[in-house]
Amino acid sequence: MTNKRYWHKLIRLLRKDWAVAAFFLALSLIGFALFYLIPFAMGFLYSFQDRTVDGSFVGLDNYMALQASASFRKAASNTFLFTSISVPIIIALSLLFAHLLNQKLFARNWLQTAFVLPLVVPVASIVMIWQIFFDWNGTLNALLQSLHVERIDWMKSDWSMGVLIIVYIWKNIGYSIILFLAGLQNIPKDYYETADIEGAGKLHKWIHITLVYLTPTMFFVILISIINSFKVFRETYLIAGGYPHDRIYMLQHYMNNMFLSLDVQKLTAAAVLMVGCILVFVTGMLAIERRFRNFME
Amino acid sequence: MRKAMSILFMFIIVIVSACSAPTGGQTSSNNPNNATALSEEGMPLDETKGGKKTVVVSMLAADDFYLQAKQKYEAQHPNTTIQFKEFPAEGATLNPAEVERYIKQISTEVLSGKGADLYAVSTIPLPIDKYVNKKAFVNLEELIKRDKTFDPNLYQMNIIENSRMNNGIYTLPLQFYMEALFGDAANIGNAGVTIDDKNWTWSEFAEISKKLADKGGHSVSLANWAPELLLNNLVSDNYPKLVNGQTASFDSAFFTDLLKQVKSLYDNNIIKSENVDSKKTNFTYSIITSPSDYLLRLGLYYSNGKIYQKPHSADQQSGVSFSVTRELAMNANSKVKGEAWNFMKFLMSEEIQSLTKENGISINKAVNDKAVQDLVKQGSVNNPKAGKALEASEENLQPFKEMVSEARLRDYGYNDEHNKLSAIITEEAKAFFTGQKTAEATAKLMQNRIMSYLNE
Amino acid sequence: MTVFRKLVLTLIMGGLALAMLFPVAVTFTNSFMTEAEINYNYHLIGQMVDVTAGEKDQFINLKLIPDWVSFSQYMEVLFDKPVFLQMFWNSVFMVVPIIVGQVLVASLAAYAFAKLRFWGRDKLFVIYLITMLMPFQVTLVPNYIIADKLGLMNTTSSIILPGIFSAFGVFMLRQFMLHIPNSYIEAAKIDGAGHLRVFYQIIVPLIHPGIAALVVLLFVDYWNMVEQPLIFLEDAFKQPLSLYLSQINEGARGVAFAASVLYMTPMVLLFLYAESYFVEGIQLSGIKG
Questions:
Q1: Which terminus of chain B, N or C, has less C-beta within 10 A?
Q2: Rounded to 5 degrees, what angle do the CA atoms A230, A231, A233 make?
């Protein structure tokens, strides 16, 4: 692309909606910059400094220190494992349930409510019920004992990851169901009707209409599910503390511990790496979404 | 690729433009006080507002000691306001969630270069060693050296000196108590077991306890001492064998043997976690908070008692143990360091320290001497339980005075590694001591969790 | 759909729903137990039963039906702990402004990101997303410095303002607006409508389900927030209810369930109300895309 053409394109783009965009964005941008962008940029900067107050640049030292930490590597791989198992499961299940709940069932409103209710159960209650089930003296172990099977230390063995995945899915599936239900409403009904006239099969319709039209929603749900998968930390922390069994020692534990020991440098470096990884995924999703946009036009 | 490059480019622009304003501004405003402007006598100069100064002291809850000190200080220094910044909590003692909240709040303050001028530390374990590592607190040793009006002879410098961290004095103790074992001296003598309490470690204590049980001492050596506690004492004793930098060997045969040894001491009732009448035990652990407290306990526990040093861990030096109940640290970002230091000294003065004599030993020597003299003048201490009045003479109180001036073994306090490890050990060991899990399974869990900590 | 198929599907979903609801049911029924019963049933949580002397193992006693239906937990929470009601209203006065503000600010910004063309649009959007991914611990210290500079420390504004400008709503509504065919907008423009009119006459009505879902999710998120008030609100009497519930520990176990039920009620009511909006929301049928 020559320089001249580039400038032409730029001017064309600027002229197009620039002023309108500025109007629509102004309010959001001011607050966003103040409360999110600047703090984020400062945090990013901290990852290259040795102290938060009057720090001096240390280049990649913090990242080297991070790399040297076996606990960080363990936390990163646990988090990766947890996210890559639980997020696909929750997406598949919530999509399925949203479809079923979108059909004309008996007592549909009540069923929908039931799936979404776990979302509102407070941490205190979740923690207690979690303990009632999975404690060393818990109900599950009582069951095992009555079957003459050896007790399992659910939260202090490799099982803990499984427990975490179950709790995560139970709690957050309502979140994704709400979003998918709302997304399904957005698909114009006549698309299906047209497809029916053309004699398209169910699967064909699902892939070529439903899935395509859910692209933007899907992007959102996946990203939010990843963010929510980090939030299981709160419950886990209340149950197992800052140093749980190393199967569920996640990046959130690492970062929280780093904060409590005032090691903001390693904390920010870890966060930057984590966000960098998610960013690769986000860029991919945006590329897919761009194809959807072109398709819409 | 171009896409990625341009995103990165946006990124840099945003960061550069965002950071030049706030961080830059902050750095310049912080510079003068970090360089610490010094006056002629070498003491820090303060920022004032129209001649008025405010010293903010952060604490859990301002008790009578601090309230009275504030009143008196402000009366003597009309241009200074002492402001207490308290931490709201529901009950008298903090629950774990509140402790976490407290630590998070203070850490955020300290990290952002803000916060109170002084931090009054009491029972809540703030990660002070981490703050010190991040240079968030002032090394008070420099102030002590520079300040010509500070006379070290007036204070229990042994307590201050032995509260050192990172080759500096970062916390200033105001009040402390001592820890010791009272022992049934007559009975121990009859059993023919000699005790070198100036040097004994917890491992030796365990050996001696076994010997005493065999040789006709009381079968119970120590009561009211949880197995987890003894285990932690022994872990500290053998620390180099168990922890080496970033590796731990709690899954070794050595440690599982240690676990089993501890359990057998309890299985054989040599040490008990329940309370037992002190007269039926060889030793009783106790804290000592005042001269009269010392006399009372001496008479109460044994008819012919003697005081022994609390066993130390092999990784510590030997000496009389003490624990600090009230101390202060100064924020490195404070803008009124001079006045804050002045207030610290005021809190150490005889006038203020005499307010504390009921619930701890003072950092001020004169206050402690006076307490002993007052007791001697009184002549005796009445103890309804011992059923007799105890004579309070200079001679009787000599051991107490010696202990106060010799106390030099501070409890672990702010050693984060020690605190974290001992919390994990305490938590996991319960399953073994109650017979729920094997020593090996317990040790494996401890190793698992401790490694996460050590490798951070 | 045949009635038979409908019935089978309903039964399957009903079964799953019951499993999902079980913990909620436990919370609800246990809230009618007395403190003594709660403590009796659940005192073994986190404890180790001593079996060295040959005693038998004991287990936690999960119970659904109280021995004695009692409102003592509710009485204690509502009447003996005035701080509970205070914190309840604190939550309301923080969450409602956040929702109203964010829906307003975010829908405008989302329109720009979804339907306008300007230089750097997608890059700026990626930056919005990045801030959502940052763990709060990272931005805590900078946020603290900024709140301090703006004089927001220890005021509810330090919670509300960041809440309003969060990227969440922008992201969500942008995704919903992407669904709307551009031809609608073009058509309106040909009729002489400006962007603002397009926005509130076409876009807003069409994304009603999205806005309803956003309101519900924002309510849930901010009703449950713990970290921000923890640091920014120093006064106990300013803190939201979520902090009270996150601090319930062994000592207060006896009232945890009733407190939880009261805590959940506003969210459940809002959900039941909003449900009809995003489930049977405005259909796009009839207008050609």
A1: N
A2: 85
Query: How close C258 gets to chain B, by Cα (Å)?
Result: 19
A65-296 belongs to which homologous superfamily?
MetI-like (1.10.3720.10)
pLDDT score, position B33: 40
Residue C157 belongs to some domain of the structure: yes
Nearest CA in chain C to A11: C119
Domain-embedded: residue C78: no
Q: Where are the domains of chain A?
A: 1-46, 65-296
In a domain, C171, yes or no: yes
- Taking CB atoms and an 8 Å limit, are B88 and C235 in contact across chains? yes
* Interhelix angle A139-146/A123-134, nearest 10 degrees: 20
Tell me what pLDDT residue B415 has.
84
Among residues 107-126 of chain B, which lie with CB inside 8 Å of chain A? 107, 110-113
Q: Residue C202: which domain range?
A: 95-211
Q: Are B427 and A217 in contact (CB under 8 A)?
A: no
pTM (2 d.p.): 0.89
Q: How many CA atoms lie within 13 A of C219 on its CB side?
A: 22
Tens digits of residue pLDDT in C1-27: 688 888 999 999 999 999 999 999 999
So what's the pLDDT on residue C58? 87
Report chain B residues whose CB lies below 8 A from the CB of A266. Answer: 456
Mutation target for C interface from B98, B108, B109, B333: give the one with most C CBs within 10 A: B108
Length reported for chain C: 289
Q: Which residue of C has its CA nearest to B89?
A: C236
Residues 36-75 of A with CB under 8 A from C: 36-40, 42-43, 46, 52
Domain count, chain C: 1
The two three-digit tokens of residue C62, written as one number: 């999960």
**B297-312 tens-digit pLDDT:** 888 888 888 899 999 8
Residue C149 lies in a domain: yes
Cβ atoms B407, B320 nearer than 8 A: yes
Reported as a single tens digit per residue, the pLDDT across C113-158 is 998 888 889 999 999 999 999 888 888 889 999 999 999 988 999 9
Query: Which of B18, B113, B445 has the CB atom closest to A156's CB atom?
Result: B445
Percent above pLDDT 70 for chain A: 94
Q: Provide the 3-class DSSP secondary structure of residue C40.
A: helix
